[in-house]
Specification:
Layout (H helix, E strand, L loop, with lengths): L9 H17 L3 H9 L19 H25 L4 H4 L5 H11 L2 H11 L20 H10 L10 H18 L1 E2 L4 E2 L9
Antiparallel strand pairs: 1-2
């Protein structure tokens, strides 16, 4: 990501993000989108997103995670729109736990496509341009969020240093089990060996 990206003033992006969220929430399929994202409790796992949350519980954390993720997404959408489609500018830093929920959101491709078509709001998410876990309190993303909705939920909005610290701890624990590189490589026999 280019550190000299031109982004709209946080207040301007916040105003547009709030309008977009209101429009999305009024869409007839928004409730279905929220339910679908939250229903990933049995089919959606990851090694370095939700594991970073102390005491993560899918039954308790998906309800508050969805609104945080949708707010992050409308900030991206607002920046994208206000920069005439600058995808690099729109890929704002997002905490890892929110990024995992954003992936659940993006997986609802059909309903999300219809909502985008009806509302005219373009969702922006590009793995090759994202800066997950790179945010810090007071950065651009936080400024826009605060201007739109007030303080972030500190449980989910982990800063860069805390993300790195927790990821290192989680990675060491996984390695003891034979799960390496944060789940990108698993020891032979892991799934087939007797306990």
């Amino acid at each position: 990501m280019n550190a000299t990206l031109e982004r709209p003033a946080p207040e301007k992006a916040a105003e547009r993000a709030k309008e977009m969220l209101t429009t999305l929430e009024a869409d007839p399929e928004f409730a279905r989108l929220a339910r679908s994202c939250k229903s990933y409790d049995e089919a959606w796992t990851d090694f370095t997103g939700y594991a970073l949350l102390d005491g993560y519980d899918v039954r308790k954390d998906t309800d508050p995670l969805f609104p945080e993720a949708i707010r992050a997404m409308v900030i991206k959408s607002a920046v994208y729109e206000l920069t005439d489609g600058n995808e690099d500018a729109a890929e704002i830093p997002v905490p890892v736990p929110l990024d995992v929920m954003i992936h659940a959101l993006a997986a609802q491709f059909t309903v999300l496509s219809r909502i985008q078509e009806r509302t005219g709001i373009k969702f922006v998410h590009a793995t090759d341009r994202e800066a997950i876990g790179a945010g810090e309190p007071g950065d651009y993303t936080h400024q826009v969020y605060r201007a739109a909705w007030g303080p972030v939920n500190d449980r989910y909005w982990l800063g860069k240093d805390e993300t790195e610290r927790r990821t290192a701890i989680v990675t060491r624990k996984y390695e003891q089990l034979g799960i390496y590189e944060a789940g990108r490589r698993i020891a032979p026999g892991f799934a087939t060996a007797a306990a």
